[in-house]
Amino acid sequence: MSNLLTNIAQNAVFVLEFLAIIAILFVIAFVLERVAAKKNDVKEPIFTTRKIAMIGMFSAISVILMLFEIPLPFAPGFYKLDFSELPILIGTFAFGPAAGVMMEFIKILLKLLIKGTSTAFVGELANFAVGCSFIIPASVVYAFKKTKTSAIIACLVGALSMTIFGSAFNALYLLPAFAALYGMPIDALIAMGAEANHLVKEGSMVSFVVACVAPLNFLKGFSVSLITLLVYKKLSPIIKQGRKS
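Request: output the structure for the sequence above.
Response:
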């Protein structure tokens, strides 16, 4: 009984931390968007009726893509590649970082409603926070200067940010939280990484994130960035049509 109560308390604390991270990232995105708007003398509101509708549409496409996961040969089975960040990055370039964080949140909410969680919300928090570490820096760079060159720089900044943040966040918070919630030693997770990737050393969290987590995040950031750069210019007029309404 005491173990059950402890597990409930741990899950409740984790959910509260999850909500706090969502709120913090949204505030950061909102402030940065306001700064960029002031610099560019843009006075339209953060959210309009059309923008809210587009946020819903991009979020729905994103959660569909999230359901199609690709296993990777260099990482354990609980790490998979998906392209759910693609519509969100496109929508964030069009509507700003605050809209991007909102899309990330709605995507996770829809995923939980459709599929639930198999990781005690750890996987959902990882997807949300690491996704935001990609779209916020990328969209802020692009918001200050909307040119083809700045879009390329924005995508590179976003991919690098996601790689660095995702690796650190996994090592310092997510993997320990996952181990604690499931009552398993952290070395067991590292051992799973060692089975998939010979570069992972036994008991070494650093080798685990360098060999498994960092390549996954960089691959995702690079591929999503490349596709976005190829299609955004063609989609932008359609997305922004009637934007001020």
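Helices lie at 2-39, 49-66, 85-95, 97-115, 122-144, 148-181, 186-196, 205-240.
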